[in-house]
Amino acid sequence: MILRPRVVLVTGIALVLLVLVAALNIGRGTSQIEVFDVLRTLAGGGDRRENGIIFSLRMPRTLTGVLVGAALGLSGALFQSLARNPLASPDILGVTWGAGVGAVAVIVLGGSRGTVSGAVALGVPAAGLVGGLAAGLLLYLLSWRQGIDGYRMVLVGIGLSAIGGNIVYWLLTVGDVDDASRATVWLVGSLANAGWDGVGPLAIAVAILVPATLACSRVLGGLQFGDDTSRALGIRVDGARGTLLLLAAALAAVAAATAGPIAFVALATPQIAMRLVGASQPPLVASMVLGALLTVSADLAVRITPGLSHLPVGVLTAVLGAPYLIYLFVRTRRRQQS
Fold first, then answer.
1. Which parts of the chain have pLDDT scores under 50?
2. Contacts of 238 (CB under 8 A, 6+ apart)
3. For residues 243 and 241, what is the distance between their CA atoms, to the nearest angstrom?
4. Mean pLDDT across the chain, nearest whole number?
5. Exposed e or buried b for every residue in 163-193, given b needs 16+ CB within 10 A?
6. In whole angstroms, what is the distance from residue 101 CA to residue 163 CA?
7. pTM, to two decimals
């Protein structure tokens, strides 16, 4: 993988901004802590009070936002590169709706217990993960016809989104009112209830999936030249596309299982990163860092805006992302007409 100076510069600036925004987010709360004191405490120089507030109470929320945003940004970059379509993201292709079906089914069927017991007891995060992975597998199987075509994958994904969305709405209508309310909160996507119990599994999953994805970056670059050229380069096209598609689905499913389907992060950040670095396809590392930056920034904006402190972060990302989605539709239509 060749690192161009502009890619390194953009990624480095985004990383610095991410550290500052994360420190600001950690410092917000009933007891305010300045950014310098947060950074000093994270470096090991804090007193007992600062250590208690930062590491026990506030660190899990921000760390969850960083990991979830990074996973979504990387997932979106993979999907858009594979489909060669800026509209391809886990939100549009049905992966997050698959996670929603799993999570809402457990909430509605498990009620206040929060689990469904059968051969295996299934909690909300595990059900979201299973639902997202199942949707990713379905997307792969239904898109494959002697290979995976990006246009067909987007159409199949839109169909899966519609099916998943309608199953979720049906579950909400047949469920108890209180359970339906809890499910609706999960579906919006929120970091408010993030804790260390969720950070551990999320960090392990990200630590496995991100290196595996980056190791495939050369193959992903080769796939952009077309199937014949890719085969001439020694790439097993169908196997490589299937592996990368399942990695992208797993990243999105892990993120949705932890914090719910936070909308538009996976859609917007790869395109923003691509324009910032001046590349022909979404850069993986820059998309990952910008995804984390966008998620934590949205969470900070919600927390510091008067009257919005209880607003789930997914509402703000959706409000910001909807105009961007319309812009992409219009831009794609104009390009097709020209």
1. 119-120
2. 144, 147, 148
3. 6
4. 85
5. bbeebbeebbeebeeebbebbebbbbbbbee
6. 10
7. 0.89
